Predict the structure.
Amino acid sequence: MVLPDWAQVSEKRRWHIARVVALLEQWAAGLDLPKDEASRWLAAGLLHDALRDAPETMLRALTGEGTRPVKLLHGPAAAVRAEQEGERRQDVLDAVRHHTVGSAGWHRTGKALYLADFLEPGRTFLVSEREFIARQVPHDFDAAFRQGVRLRIDYALSQGGELFPETMELWNAVR
């Protein structure tokens, strides 16, 4: 796995990205995706957290966002940076841009990244539930996506997390 030279990630984050990419590879093979679609999934996985450990000033400068919580800016910033470096596949850019909050307008690339980011096996919460959903992806992608969105929202709420408007739009689009 080779991150872009502009990536700013810790070693821990690098391992997370590797697990996300591995899960996306596994699902792409299980779904027998065309090479072009599998390539888009893997690109999104590789890029999604590429600026996760970048300084806030850089994230705000890249996104032009002055008020949104900084924890939500690494995806949009990475999408901007990837586009500056030549990434033109809109589904990849949209997946990276919205992977933390979701998007009701996603194609399958965004949905796959959203799931893989949440279901990757290095996370230590809801282990059996997340493993179950991850196993279902190659058999019924849409049902697994609905289950994954529901579990991610339930977990966020149980931890006192905030639901963003984009997340609610996503939930309303899939339920």
Observations:
- Residues 11-174 form a domain with the Hypothetical protein af1432 fold (CATH 1.10.3210.10).
